[in-house]
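Field log, afternoon session.

UNIT: design team B
ACTIVITY: writing a sequence onto a fixed backbone
BACKBONE:
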C-alpha cells in the first residue's frame, strides 16, 4: 500500500511532445480540478480524492499543488495525506523547475525535493524516507526528465489525435526513471458531472516501462512492455485516459489495472478554467 499513490499518479500519465506555444496551453493560473479515485474489484468503492490547484508563482513560472486524501472510512485502514507540488515554465515543453513530495501513508513517509538547472538537463534529487537513510542523486541527461505532476500538465498541452507523431519522454518517480508512450485510440462519449449529456472525449492508450532495474513495476500489475517495438506498434497498453475534446482537455476519467481489480478516477469538479 505504501506505493499506492505512485501508481495512482502514474495512471494519469500519457505523453507526446510537439510544437506548443505558451499561449496555446489549455489551462491557466486559477484552475482547480478534483478527481474521485475508486478501486474496483467485484464492486466499486470510492477510496480517495485528488485536488489540483494551479497558480502563478512568478512572471516566468507557474506553481501546481496536488493533495491526496483517503476518504474518512478508509482512514481507519490506511490513512493517506500526501502533498505533491511543482513549478514549471509555461513554455512549449512545460519545462520543470522544481518538484516536492510530502508523503504520509500509514507509518510510511517521504520528504523529497527535486531541482532542475535552467536547461532542465540536470536535476538534483534529495530524498528522505522512513525506510532508508537520506540520499542525494544528480541526474545528467540529454533529454528533459519530468516529474509526475508536471507531466500531467505536459500531457494536456498536447493535442493528441489520430495524426499525431508519438514521441517518448521520461519521468522521475523517486530515483527511478519511467518511459511513457501514448496514442490516440478513438473519440468516445463519456458521462461528466454537471452535464446532462455525455461529452466527446479522446481516449488515450498508455504504455509504461521502467528504464532503471530497481523499479519493479510488475509487482503492482500494470501492463508493460519488455522492450519498445519499432514503428507504430506500442505493445501492451494497460492504462487509459479520457480527455475532453474542448480547449481545456480535462481528464474526465482514467483506468489502470492491478493484479486484482483496477484503480479508476473520475472528474468530480473543475473551476477556473481557461475556456468556460
Amino acid at each position: 500500500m505504501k506505493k499506492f499513490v505512485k501508481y495512482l499518479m502514474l495512471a494519469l500519465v500519457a505523453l507526446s511532445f510537439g510544437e506548443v506555444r505558451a499561449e496555446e496551453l489549455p489551462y491557466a493560473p486559477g484552475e482547480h480540478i478534483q478527481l474521485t479515485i475508486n478501486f474496483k474489484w467485484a464492486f466499486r468503492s470510492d477510496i480517495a480524492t485528488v485536488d489540483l490547484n494551479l497558480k502563478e508563482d512568478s512572471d516566468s513560472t507557474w506553481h501546481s499543488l496536488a493533495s491526496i486524501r483517503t476518504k474518512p472510512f478508509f482512514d481507519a485502514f490506511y490513512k493517506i495525506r500526501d502533498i505533491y507540488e511543482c513549478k514549471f515554465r509555461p513554455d512549449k515543453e512545460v519545462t520543470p523547475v522544481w518538484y516536492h513530495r510530502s508523503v504520509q501513508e500509514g507509518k510510511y513517509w517521504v520528504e523529497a525535493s527535486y531541482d532542475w538547472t535552467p536547461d532542465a538537463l540536470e536535476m538534483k534529487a534529495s530524498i528522505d524516507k522512513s525506510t532508508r537513510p537520506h540520499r542525494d542523486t544528480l541526474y545528467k541527461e540529454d533529454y528533459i526528465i519530468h516529474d509526475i505532476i508536471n507531466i500531467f500538465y505536459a500531457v494536456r498541452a498536447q493535442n493528441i489525435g489520430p495524426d499525431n507523431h508519438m514521441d517518448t519522454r521520461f519521468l522521475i518517480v523517486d530515483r527511478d526513471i519511467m518511459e511513457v508512450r501514448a496514442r490516440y485510440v478513438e473519440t468516445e462519449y463519456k458521462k461528466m458531472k454537471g452535464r446532462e449529456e455525455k461529452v466527446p472525449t479522446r481516449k488515450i492508450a498508455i504504455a509504461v516501462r521502467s528504464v532503471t532495474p530497481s523499479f519493479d513495476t510488475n509487482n503492482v500489475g500494470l501492463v508493460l512492455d519488455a522492450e519498445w517495438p519499432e514503428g507504430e506498434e506500442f505493445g501492451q497498453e494497460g492504462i487509459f485516459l479520457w480527455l475532453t475534446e474542448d480547449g481545456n482537455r480535462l481528464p474526465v476519467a482514467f483506468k489502470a489495472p492491478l493484479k486484482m481489480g483496477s484503480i479508476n478516477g473520475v472528474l468530480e469538479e473543475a473551476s477556473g478554467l481557461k475556456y468556460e
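LOG NOTE: The CA atoms of residues 185 and 203 lie 5 Å apart.
NEXT ACTIVITY: expression trials, pending approval
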